[in-house]
Fold:
Amino acid sequence: MTGLNSQPSTIELKDVVQFPLPGQNIPGSLTFSPDGRFLTYLFSAEGGLVRQLYGLDLESQRQQLLIAPPDTGLNEDALSLEEKLRRERLRQRELGITRYEWAAKTGQILLPLPDGLYVHEGEGKPLRPLLTQPAQPILDAHFSPDCQWVSFVQDAELYVMPAAGGQPLQITSGARGSGKTNGLAEYIAQEEMARSRGYWWSPNSQKLAFVQVDETHIPIYRIVHQGKDGVGEAAQEDHRYPFAGMPNARVRLGVVERSGGAVQWLNLGDDPDIYLARVKWLPNGRLTAQILNREQSQLDLLEFDLKKGQKRLLLRETSDVWINLHRMFYPLKKLPEGKGSGFIWASERTGYRHLYLHDADGKEIRPLTSGEWQVDSLAGVDMAKKLLFFMASQASPTESHLYQVSLLGGGPQRLTPEPGIHTVVLDVKRHRFVDVQQSVDKPPTIVLRSLADGRLQTTLFAQPDERIDQLSLPIPELVTLQNREGVDLFGAIYRPPASLGQGPFPTIVSVYGGPHAQRVTNSWLLTVDMRAQYLASQGFLVFKLDNQGSARRGLAFEAPIRHNMGDVEVADQVDGVRWLVQQGLADPNRVGIYGWSYGGYMAAICLARAADTFQVAVAGAPVTHWDGYDTCYTERYMGLPQNNPEGYRVSSVMSHLDKIVGKLLLVHGLIDENVHFRHTARLINGLIAARKQYDLLLFPDERHMPRKADGRLYMEEQIVAYFKKHLL
Structure:
């Protein structure tokens, strides 16, 4: 396929490490004001990573800068360790203002900044300090539902203070100094369950539910900052990291009055070794909790009547594969028929995630969606019109669109006409929605559409990025191929310049390959994979393939990796390379592979288990032995190591080192608190014992996601040089 224009790409290595990516400097965190008149968002007018808060009057189309960050928001080095680790969990690069929250009833905006909490009270009014220069970092600040209070966690305890200003009141106790925390999500909840919250306001703003986390029984894993000038406490971090098969954090769920006092601890069941996956208040003041068992084969939706001190099981999901958590539990004050309350729930009981209507007792009333496609998220509900809005893959597994369906039954109606990936925000009154639309040949644009029929109302943002024309990035070619078993796999090809002919070319596979991820989509992000584009400009054919185990294709597509990682994924990637060879595109004697994290694992294990296919591998932050990764992620797919010792052995890169004949470059950050450097260290020990050559590239001050521009440029230089040396 041709590129955005017909000229050869002029991409340079410096373009690979520049953020935001070409065409990606767009407004983020888009939110309608409570009255629906304004759209607020975070944006960098300078085209950098430091974001400011803007507001757009939807009637006059007048845009204005509401708040610029203070100087302390411009430098990542100024952030607390807690904030740095939070950003790692979110994979967040942006600086400046990174989060804000509207007060639904007062029109105020809460702004957590590095030096404290602030409130924006309206156009033309100065930013009001609420709590500044705290002795300890302020974490997870939120308005109460009535907007009269602000809550936050500080030094392991939960606080509440008046939104109008005043003295914070500590409402929990017993955690500070004990190794426990009150009101904060534990590492596993943040990293593996997408639960960043550790407390929740009741609808009437009188109570707060919160988690108490005890990790004191988990052995300390110390990370030493080897690159620092000094030694001692300032040059080390202690983490309570739960390794596969080892103890998890102990989590309790309690409820406390807004004014503090005695805690009402809730009975989560007889098994203490569980995950508290989700917590949500119901409109009637009852509390729900989703409890996932350690094996992640059973999910219970519990309801607690706090006044009576009773609990009941509303719903239970079971799976012989694993439970994929979601955020699609939506309580309804009234059912669409007008009788009683109920809720909307998502389930994969048919093999694909779909939405169901349940009554207040948990009994299923009817399915709301069905078919061999899956629902990605719930976008909103309009009870007046009895309509449900959701994002789904019905049009194509490589696309995501907004649909509406009647709560009374019927088929879905698509509301986003343009092909590609869509991200939407519905207004409060359910009249219109913001649509961020993109595809491989169209950078993201932001438009306003009617929620009734998807009709375009106005374009809000279509700011051109001059780098797109300057770099002349070719559009990757989306392909479908069949693996050895006839299963359709989706791939993307980045071709070298036409001046180099039609092939076969030296080929590099860019891989992730892990579960809960999808790399090949009809999205602009695929086009602006700058490393892939640069390697293609240098004469390599670059290929991506979503193997079995990856997301958005249903449980049957995910399940083959169960208890046996690094097997079917490798076989699918080999099938992809063979397909390229059959098409006359890939030179079978010059094939490399690279990836990061699970992709680093894939790069290393492909080199070992498919030595006749891959001659070179670059493995970044690789998981080399699954007993060295965390409980929740690893055990979801592999089971506990005590119950699947052979699966853990075979899935480890270390079990296949004797088969390596190609070149291996290992890349790792020494203070990576997610995939620890010990993965690479243990692999090196195995390589030494097997008398296998390897090359090593280390970054002493980087975590799991390299951040410093000079270090990332150096890394790209070394990776490109490695492939050129061994494949060209």
